[in-house]
Specification:
The structure holds two protein chains of two kinds.
Chain A lengths: L4 E3 L2 E4 L5 E6 L6 E8 L3 E9 L2 E5 L6 E5 L5 E5 L8 E8 L11 E2 L3 E5 L1
Parallel strand pairs in A: 2-11
Antiparallel strand pairs in A: 1-3, 3-8, 4-5, 4-9, 5-6, 7-8, 9-10, 9-11
Chain B lengths: L3 E2 L4 E5 L4 E3 L2 E2 L7 E7 L6 E7 L6 E3 L2 E6 L4 E6 L8 E8 L7 E3 L3 E6 L1
Parallel strand pairs in B: 2-12
Antiparallel strand pairs in B: 1-4, 3-9, 5-6, 5-10, 7-8, 8-9, 10-11, 10-12
The chains are: A mainly beta, B mainly beta.
Chain lengths: 116, 115
């Protein structure tokens, strides 16, 4: 079974631009979660989608948004990029909503975003 | 409020030593789930173990073992006879109904295993 894939793997943008990251979950997984990982803040939950609906949202500004398609693929978008948005963005898929029922998450390799 | 605390930022051991990574969690829910994930230098988090709040049995998987103690809200992870390939960042995580089961990660413990 193919794992979670994320594209692109690396991205360089400038302040004020916007960016879209893509995540393809493991086949059969309906839940996709996004995380931001930085040296200072660690792993922080952004949002989670299940069956095309956002079911959970972390404490991030509205510049961060996402969506999920009928095939469970997900995209996240960051508008008006700031220097502090530089991070590794990780996508994780699981069988159920988030980790309800204790389902483990399977992570992709991440997209490293650098904002100049 | 900090939900998952991994007090050890970095640990350095020599190969074949045993090492324990500490994890203390905080929750008001009676049903919750605890996890350990490993993040090797390649960056991709790898699931290691899941434990629900009703199962306090310790678990052993090869050189890995986990000690879950509800009385002290701890879920510690021990690597026996560590190897260089164990070098990674290890994250403890909590998932609880309050907040919709989103996963809250600890800050991680970076483990260096020297040959």
């Amino acid at each position: 079974k193919a794992g979670v894939t994320q594209t692109p793997r690396y991205l360089i943008k400038t302040r004020g631009q916007q960016v879209t990251l893509s995540c393809s979950p493991i086949s059969g997984h309906r839940s996709v979660s996004w995380y931001q990982q930085t040296p200072g803040q660690g792993l922080q939950f952004l949002f989670e989608y299940f069956s095309e609906t956002q079911r959970n949202k972390g404490n991030f500004p509205g510049r961060f948004s996402g969506r999920q398609f009928s095939n469970s693929r997900s995209e996240m978008n960051v508008s008006t990029l700031e220097l502090g948005d530089s991070a590794l963005y990780l996508c994780a898929s699981s069988l159920a909503q988030g980790t309800g029922g204790g389902n483990e998450q399977f992570f992709g390799p991440g997209t490293r975003l650098t904002v100049l | 409020a900090q939900k998952v605390t991994q007090a050890q930022t970095e640990i350095s051991v020599v190969e074949k030593e045993d090492v324990t990574l500490d994890c203390v969690y905080e929750t008001r829910d009676t049903t919750y789930y605890l996890f350990w994930y490993k993040q090797p230098p390649s960056g991709e988090l790898v699931f290691l173990i899941r434990r629900n709040s009703f199962d306090e049995q310790n678990e052993i998987s090869g050189r890995y073992s986990w000690n879950f103690q509800k009385s002290t809200s701890s879920f510690n992870f021990t690597i026996t006879a560590s190897q260089v390939v164990d070098s990674a960042v290890y994250f403890c995580a909590l998932s609880e109904p309050t907040g919709g089961f989103k996963t809250i990660f600890g800050a991680g413990t970076r483990l260096f295993v020297k040959a």
